[in-house]
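Work Package 3 (structural annotation) set out to generate three-dimensional models for the target panel prioritized at the project kickoff. During this period the team completed the workflow that converts sequence records into discrete structure tokens, so that structures can be stored uniformly alongside our sequence database. As a representative example, we reproduce one entry of 299 residues exactly as it appears in the project archive.
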Amino acid sequence: MRLFNNKICLSVLVFSAALLPYSVFASSVYLETAHTEFFVGDTILIDVKVDSNGKEINTVEGKIFLDYLPGAILIRDINLSESSFSLWPDKPLLSDDLRIISFAGGVPSGFKKQDAILFKIALNLTNTGQITLSPDNVSVYLNDGKGTRDTVGIRNLTINVLPQDTGNRPANDLDALILEDKTPPEPFIIIAGQDDSVFEGKKFLSFSTVDNQSGVRYYEVIEGSFPVTRSGGTFVLQNQHTSNEVIVIAYDAAGNSRESVYSPPLNIFSYPIIISLIGSILIIILSIVIFRKIKRSRK
């Protein structure tokens, strides 16, 4: 009888699982913060995370909507510190009205993770009231070679900001993160390109790296004897006719740096190289002539 009852219970569980909404087994995108209380003057970090729910995924894209009263917050930073994503077709970008963060990140080899960090949002809380951050228009793609889109569950984060706590110093997660960062950005390569559809067909360099703590802030580009230029992830060459060695230096928020050098490919048809080749050939011919004359004179 007990065995019969156990079989009935098992059947009920299996049947019940089949009736559960598919979203229970979906990937989910959500927001978390280490704080439980929030006060005016605090600067807090909010992690945007993804749970692949046991499936292997490789791409997440979407938006984070911020709902707050005017003057309630300042968005101090959006960075990729501790991000599980290494490829960013669209790095997290804040809209002009400061209400939407759009993003598209990927992992070439895919992963299965429960609490993978997409990126961090640093908010300075400047007034009391309620703030809600909501994932929206989110797509998660499986790492199955077919670009299959997974079902996605989302979870909002709502915080209530209280008047300033005069008995304590305001929290500042961002400064703490920067002070702890002693590691330079990751090594990176520089790629040369030229396309009629961008930069008016001019030659350019592209480069990108990540910093797993405070995040990459900017790049400095040194092209030959030209002045140092601060740049984003692309740089249009100032000298479009003669290729120079170019140095690109990536800086993180803590001031740590990583340098990479672009050496232009050797062009055997350039004028100086042609002159050098002609000179070398003439020297070889002259040497052969002299050698033959010496040989004949000995006879």
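Residues 21-180 form a domain with the Immunoglobulin-like fold (CATH 2.60.40.680).
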